[in-house]
Amino acid sequence: MFFPRLYRELYSDANLNRAWRAVRRVSTATGLDAMTATHFEARAFILLKQLQDDLRAFRYRPQPVKRIFMKREIGPPRPLGIPTFVDRIVQRGLVQVLIPVFEPHFDECSHAYRTGRSPQTALAQAKDFARNGKSWVVKLDLSDCFGNIPHRPLLRAVFRRVKDCAVRKLLVRLLSVEIVTESNSGMRQVSKPGRGILQGSPLSPLLANIYLDAFDQALRKLELRFVRYGDDIAIFLSTKPEAEAALETATRLLEKMFMPVNREKTKVHHLGTGFKYLGEWFRWRREKS
């Protein structure tokens, strides 16, 4: 039987063990299986071998995801999707084989969820634009970024670079899993949305970057200077009219991608006054010569 390269790499010993170690480091909440890292570790060799066999024989099927709500100081609770422990290992393993496919093509102005990049690198790039005379900024904020990403356009974006049919089928299954929400009374609500990717899923950050890369490339073609950290976007311009025009252009681009902007948080700012970006107050005044 023919085994495509990416899929074969997914279930390799090295990749699954690396994925298991990564999930073990970050896992806290449990999915519907109620399995913790400690429980998995006690039988890790057997469970990883079983998972490898299921992937190799195309028997693996992702299980429903548990939806929980995390309280925030401001605003409504944030919905999180917690896959089962084994599904998190598969998703992490898939991320590991997909990153080399997509990472070389991401824009240098995209900073979230990427190795070697951080809020600090995003702020450093923003300061560089400010130093070079870009004193007006469009601060864009997306409304429920992860929750609005439509599945079909997302899959088209992935499939442009991923030709492996087995990986394609796996991605479709992972996006199509049922979501189970449990109420305080014990009632269960099951849904199967056709849009949105789940915060809390190891695969979602990479998928968000893949989908929003089309927006990054569109801004690049327009020769705009910008910084994007996930759904926090700042476009730097020299004049207020340029900033207002860029705001309209960027909003249209995002709405064509079914990604509405948060109108209350999306504004044009002058750097002399400053604005809040990535948790910091960003202000810049040009030194007088």
Describe the structure.
The chain is an alpha+beta fold and 289 residues long. It has 2 domains: 1-105 and 151-194; 109-149 and 201-288, Reverse transcriptase/Diguanylate cyclase domain (Alpha-Beta Plaits, 2-Layer Sandwich), CATH 3.30.70.270. It contains 11 helices and 10 strands. The chain has a 4-stranded mixed sheet with strand order 2-1-4-5, with no helix packed on it. Strands 6-7-3-8 form a 4-stranded antiparallel sheet, sandwiched between helices. Strands 9-10 form a two-stranded antiparallel ribbon. Strand 9 and strand 10 (280-282) form a beta hairpin.
Rounded to an integer in angstroms, the radius of gyration calculated over CA atoms is 21 Å
Mean pLDDT: 91
> What is the rounded distance between the termini?
71 Å
What's the SSE pattern?
Answer: HHHHEEHHEHHHEEHEEHEEE
Q: Report the strand count.
A: 10
Q: How would you classify the helix and strand content by structural class?
A: alpha+beta
Based on Cα principal axes, name the global outline. Answer: elongated
Count of runs of 4 or more consecutive helical residues? 11
Main beta-sheet annotation: 4 strands, mixed
- The spatial strand order of the largest sheet comes to 2-1-4-5
Beta-strand content = 15-25%
Roughly how much helix do the residues carry, as a percent range?
A: 40-55%
